[in-house]
Design brief:
CATH topology: Nucleotidyltransferase, domain 5
Distance between the termini: 22 Å
Largest sheet: 2 strands, antiparallel
Number of helices: 4
Strand order of the largest sheet: 1-2
Number of domains: 1
CATH architecture: 2-Layer Sandwich
Order of helices and strands: EEHEHEHH
Structural class: alpha+beta
CATH superfamily: Ribonuclease H-like superfamily/Ribonuclease H
Strand content: 15-25%
Shape: elongated
Number of strands: 4
Helix content: 25-40%
Radius of gyration: 18 Å
CATH class: Alpha Beta
């Protein structure tokens, strides 16, 4: 998520000023890497300000692997940071530790449940006011992630 809000279109009354009071800033970005169970009701999320590369992915995968209480399959898209040589070199170790990576077919985000979550967060759940500052955006994202589950923010696998 960046401070550039997603506003695909808007309606306004004739004669009204059509500007929104959101400061333009392209310098800050927050990346969220997450793990969600197959039913879409449990989320483990890791926040990263700035760019994400294979080293960041490996660190987060290591942390997630460390937290496992039973074997798990992690479904990934084919992003270059997921398919790097460095990640490939860790796959055998993670498999021994109970975490197996499964790569989706290319260009099939609809098969990845967490992609539905990211889409809902970005396009439905973040209010325009969250984009006023990086601290507002972080707080909003943290609230959504912390409130994710059966009560407030949730997705259904049929989405």
């Amino acid at each position: 998520m960046s401070l550039d809000p997603y506003v695909p279109y808007a309606w306004q009354d004739i004669g009204r000023d059509g500007t929104l009071g959101i400061p333009a800033s392209r310098s800050k970005r927050i990346n969220i890497l997450g793990f969600m169970n197959s039913t879409g009701d449990t989320l483990a999320a890791f926040e990263q300000e700035g760019s994400v590369n294979s080293d960041v992915v490996i660190d987060i995968m290591d942390a997630f692997c460390e937290s496992l209480e039973r074997p798990a399959v992690v479904v990934l898209d084919n992003a270059s940071i997921h398919r790097s040589k460095a990640v490939a070199a860790k796959m055998e170790e993670w498999d021994r530790r109970g975490m197996t990576l499964y790569f989706l077919y290319t260009y099939s985000p609809e098969l990845n449940l967490i992609e539905i979550l990211w889409r809902k967060i970005k396009y439905e759940w973040i209010p325009i006011s969250a984009y006023e500052s990086i601290s507002n955006l972080k707080a909003t994202l943290r609230n959504i992630i912390d409130s994710f589950g059966p009560n407030e923010y949730r997705i259904h696998s049929s989405n």
